[in-house]
Amino acid sequence: MAARLSPLHSRVITVGGTNGKGSTVAYLEHIYRASGYRVGAYFSPHLIRYNERVRIMGEEASDAVLCAAFAEVERVRADTPLTYFEFGTLAAFIVFADAGLDVVILEVGLGGRLDAVNVIDGDVGVVVSVGTDHKDWLGEDRETIGREKAGIFRGGRPAILGADMPESVRTVARGIGARVMEAGRDFRIRPLPSQWHYESAQGARDLPYPALRGAYQLNNAACAIAAVEALDLPVQAGAIRMGLVGVRLPGRFQTLPGRPLVVLDVAHNAEAAAVLADTLMTQPVAGCTRAVVGMLRDKPIEEVLAVLMPRVDVWHVASVDDPRGADGAALAAVLAAHGVTAVTVHADVVAAFDAARCQAQESDRIVVFGSFKTVGAILRYVSRHED
Question: Does the domain formed by 2-246 have CATH 3.40.1190.10?
Answer without folding.
Answer: yes
